[in-house]
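Suppose you are handed only these lines of text.
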Amino acid sequence: MTESTTLPAEAPRDCDLCPRLVSYRSKNRLEHPGWFNGAVPSFGDENARLLIVGLAPGVTGANKTGRPFTGDWAGDLLYATIDKMGFSKGEYGANPNDGLQLKDAMITNAVRCVPPANKPVGAEVNSCREYLKARIASLPKLRIILCLGKVAHDSVCRAHKMKIRDHPFGHGVEYNAPNGLIIISSYHCSRYNTNTGRLTAEMFEDVFSRAKELMEAATA
Ligand code: URA
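From them, the structure of the protein bound to uracil can be written out as follows.
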């Protein structure tokens, strides 16, 4: 099992655990009252065998639309890859009313509220881990956690009391968690990583294919 937690799987929209994120949200609400501007809930299938964990909502993407990766640059590659791998139904239209549904997969973020400059601090990742733990514990069929980037990777490992020293982040690394889940990680599908060629669409697809292979093997 993941370490126990007392919080529910979803943060309230007005979550007040992180003072810096609350004040950033207040500022965004004043400047952009039409945006979602709240803790962005996980999106996907409650019977998912695959949980994809991102970093945090982008200010003009998920923070604006209210759905993880939706409207974010990173979402274009993520949702295209999810579609290609057969984990979705419908078409991604970069807005939460596009009718897209995830099949056997769910997307969440290590930090549910948008951080300034896209960078949550350690205390924020630690506080939000309680929601991550609850989300992981809530999925009855979960087999695989696919972490996008080091922040998500480290938080998922810590949620399972796995030492980072013994389970370092890397593109394509795979680890067995004590509760039987398999953790697999990828470079984050951010604009920076894709523009610099650190992550290609092919590399990203390969990680998803491997996650799917592990998922089928774990369920067989
Ligand atoms: N949008 C998200 O919701 N999460 C990320 O990690 C990046 C963009």
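What can we learn from it? The helical segments are 19-31, 62-65, 73-84, 122-138, 150-159, 191-195, 201-219. The chain has one domain: 19-218.
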